[in-house]
Amino acid sequence: MTRNLSKTHALFERAKQFMPYGVNSNFRYWGDEDTLLIARGEGAYIWDVDGNRYIDYRLAFGPIILGHAYPSVVERVTDAIRGGTLFAWTTPLEVQVAERVIRMTGVDKVRLTNTGTEATMHALRFARAYTGRERFIKFEGQYHGMHDYVLFSTASAVAGGMGSRRNPINMQVSSGIPEGLRHYVINLPFNDLERLEETVEARWHELAAVIVEPLLGNAAGIMPRPGWLEKIRKLCNRYGIVLIFDEVKTGFRIARGGAQEYFGVKADLVTYAKAMANGFPIAAIGGKQEVMMVIEPGRVAHGGTYTGNVVGTAAADATLEILETQPVIETIFQRGQQLVDGIHEILTRAGIPHVVTGLPSTFSFILGVEEEPTDFRAYLQGDAALYERLVMALIEQGVMPDCDGREPWFLCYSHSEQDIAETLTAFEDAVRTVKRET
Ligand SMILES: Cc1ncc(COP(=O)(O)O)c(C=O)c1O
After folding, report:
1. Catalytic residue list
2. What is the rounded average pLDDT of the residues 61-73?
């Protein structure tokens, strides 16, 4: 099958006339030939403007937990917005969503916001306000959004730029960030207990927070080693540092209560966004009472014109209700496991060395390596070019994960057993194509 992309290419040419590189987020630019424009989505499928259908495993980088245009979510939003969308006063929906988040995740208090970027930006401010300290630790390969403080050593960093493991360098991944900001960030390799302990013991008096993606959701879903999250928790307790779990990707996806529930470790602050509202824009910062209560009006800033808007809160209310009452997580784990097992079997049969990473609801695989990587540096030793060729062949067959293996595959409640079977048949074909070409 060779897709017809004539309308796509024509519309992309137009898009480029009006928007830099024809997109509204740099991650969506795949070059002039491969950047798609999507006309619509329904359930587990999306259609490009030429009418080609794809089984979607990008799922907008994770938010679509139920399926595209999920009817009960769409209805709840449609009904709610007939009564207006924004009032700069609290609505009953906001109260209900905050209550649901608390019930599902076990945080004491919640503030709503709009995007993951805003959530991590505010969480870091709350941590500074609470501790009176200014620096924070993050880990290499973690992405916490688009604000300046966190655009160092993310999954967009290159191996050489991060320096040695003994003495990591903050690698700035964008121009336009004030030089002084690198002073506030300390990047360490994920899962490196010794380096973490040494750094915290030497610098705890400067450290407001440790911010961690409990699994590396922007670097193939690399898992925490047993004891890693517990060790961070212990160090934060000992030295009065605020532990922030960035659960923008893991929240409401790897368990109803997210990574805190899955790994059994509680953070002081937690950021949520994506799966919270099945693709509608809303995010949350939750946390322990005493840390959250620093947001005293006039003293510590949190706000935003669109926070708690009716569109996002209605969608979150409907989505969280389904997550609470239906076997969504169980189903996507089961389907994800079938997919992972099938992929593993096909790659093994084809003699392609690989390791599968992450959890069944959000997984990836790394080609050309035999040992499971424990940090972003190890991920970079995989064969990313082969992964990309394989995925591009798969997309040609109508199956759509991201072409970059750092971005995991995502499952949703609408993926059926039939979709998984169809995906595995396409995967087998794609592997054959790639092998023929090499
Ligand atoms: C872990 C994590 N934190 C924060 C963000 C930023 O979220 P947003 O794109 O909604 O600003 C992302 C986005 O992918 C993310 O994966």
Report:
1. 143, 246, 274
2. 98
Closest CA to ligand 1's atom 7: 116
Q: Which of 143, 147, 213 to mutate to test the pocket of ligand 1 (most atoms within 8 A of CB)?
A: 143
Measured from the Cα of 114, ligand 1's closest atom is: 10
- State in Å: Cα 434 to ligand 1 middle: 32
Helix (H) or strand (E) holding 308: none
Q: pLDDT tens, 155-209?
A: 999 988 999 999 999 999 999 999 999 999 999 999 999 999 999 999 999 999 9
Would you say 210 and 243 are in contact if contact means Cβ atoms under 8 Å apart?
Answer: yes
Helix axis angle for 71-81 and 310-325, nearest 10°, is: 150
Task: Tell me if 333 sits within 8 A of 360, measured CB to CB.
Answer: yes
Residue 393 tokens, joined: 């062949």
Residue percentage of the chain with pLDDT more than 70: 100
Q: Which residues line ligand 1 (CB under 6 A)?
A: 61, 115-117, 120, 143-146, 213, 217-218, 246, 248-249, 273
> What band does 438 get if pLDDT is binned at 50, 70 and 90?
confident
Angle at 109 between CA 103 and CA 110, to 5 degrees: 90
DSSP per residue, 4-57: --HHHHHHHHHHHHHSGGG-SSGGG---TTT---EEEEEBTEEEETT--EEEES
- The mean pLDDT value for 325-340 works out to 98
Could you give the dihedral angle defined by the CA atoms of residues 337, 341, 343 and 345, in that order, rounded to the nearest 10 degrees? 180
Averaged pLDDT for residues 41-53: 98
